Amino acid sequence: MSKHQAITKKVTTLRLKEMKAQSERIAMLTAYDYTMARLVDASGVDMILVGDSAANVMAGHSTTLPITLDQMIYHASSVVRGVQRAFVVVDMPFGSYQISRETALASAIRIMKESGADAVKIEGGSAVYDAIQGIIEAGIPVVGHLGLTPQSVHQLGGFGLQAKGEAEAERLLDEAKRLDSLGCCALVLEKIPARLAERVARSVSTPVIGIGAGAEVDGQVLVLQDMLGMDDSFSPKFLRRFGRVGEAISQAVEAYVEAVKTSEFPNASEAY
Ligand code: KIV
User: Fold this and answer.
1) Dist CA 197 CA 191 (whole Å)
2) Which CATH number is 3-226 given?
3) 219-222 and 142-147 as β-strands: parallel, antiparallel, unpaired?
4) What is the model's pLDDT at position 7?
5) Is 78 close to ligand 1, i.e. is its CB under 6 Å away?
6) Which of 170, 190, 247, 270 is catalytic?
């Protein structure tokens, strides 16, 4: 049993604030299904992100653009059923919040009602202030997301490091402060220089969770399948593989195939 299994007190927005105030680092990972969410939750993660990266790791798309609101709700409700303690955040998919403040609110309400999650996450800065304000005013916690915002990959021209120049960095800092003052319950910073991420984390009261944003932020997030070592083809500098689960799966499947082919499985004790 994991040492975290006994701790079932649910992580809330208040607890996240307290963790930042007490300089306690926040550990966040993605999950997209019940089985993985149960394991991740029982292993002590504080926040689970049902990321639209499901489009990549679960469905094999090259961008996050194709995933739909219905598909996100399906993943999110599966995850929520497996979680007791972690704070569950669901990505608002591309197209579900850009059209109008009303569409954004309607999409966020559907996510909260139909999945049972704790918060939604929205990519972007000034373009989404209005949408974020409407959702927060409806009582729904919102996590912001600045820096590399993968839903804008075609506009950004790729998945490279963001906010490298001074003007871009100042703009990101201003946007982070505004998201903080709007009341975002956390902020994800993706693939930006570590010194800028540190400046942001010191300038806002909301917890800042980094991915490719260095160590001087309030927490870290990684895509579960990436950190478990399930895909050797994706190796950005920021990614540390904490396991070799891909190899373990291949070995188990190969052993199963061999046992079936040789009629070694099932044996007498495995038959009725
Ligand atoms: O969709 C996702 O997994 C994300 C993380 C990379 C932050 O947004």
Assistant:
1) 9
2) 3.20.20.60
3) unpaired
4) 57
5) no
6) 190
